[in-house]
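Archive transcription. Copying these from loose printouts into the bound notebook so they stop getting lost. Printout 1 of 2:
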Amino acid sequence: MTTLQSVDRSIYPAQPFLIRILLVEDDPDQCSLYRLLLTNSGFEVVDVADGQQALIAHQTDNDSFDLLLADWGIPNISGDDLIRKIKDEDPLIRTILMSNHPDVRAVARECGADTSFYKPDLIGLIKVVFSVLPVATAIVPC
């Protein structure tokens, strides 16, 4: 089992850019693990458990999200449909569709996601997140 320890973020200088991620994952254990990994990598993470909550968070949050990281098999609105809806409202948001299903890459392409992520590769998650962010904003301490 992989465990992550909390990192003391106070030792890092203030970040010129704070990347905000909307994480949509219905499995509480995976959600906690992804949130911890992303937070310890310097990102601000808002997590919700289903597609409807994600739409509400995206529409009502005062600060915009830079990245939508959505599981394909979430309740209420599937991850691929969520990406379509949010991309219609916010075409500049970066999006990643994630799943452990072998067809995730094809579905991600079809729904307009920037890329896909095959769960549960934790190191791969960070690489995929950085790969879709603009270079100027992807400078965060690891």
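Printout 2 of 2:
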Amino acid sequence: MDIQIGTTPICCLPYKLSLGKEKQLLLLSKEVETIIYLKDLSTWKELEIEDMKLDLIYCINKNENVMFIGSEYGGKIYILDLKEIKILQVINIDRDEEEIWNRLFFLIPPDQHCAVVLSDMALLVLSWRGEILAQYSLYVNDSFEAIHNQAVVLYGTPEEKIFELPLTGF
């Protein structure tokens, strides 16, 4: 699979994403600072995406024509169909009240069969179509250690392993 993960501050928009020779996406900001637009430069189709605050985080699976996009301080993850430029699904994620603890990461296991979303309050395992395969609540002090042996490893303190979440069998 051809997977691309990245981030860009909203203040640095417009931002162009190349998905190959024939497909380029443009991320644009609007007057309202929590709304962005995703525009397909080959078809000029456009999509409005809300709840984007400060930094955009995205994960693109070019083979599946799917994009996951969220923001470090927002409460939503959008699953987008890049072929049709439409929203497939919106997943609401719990966030800590104190923004200082907010985080959002997209992680891909070595076999690339799913995507892992790690926020300050939750860990989600998603299919490439946005189906929630597994969901776990986290504490803000839980730390991501690694994806090791097809499992996500989290710790509460450096000495205390919380759990390993297997990423097989989905």
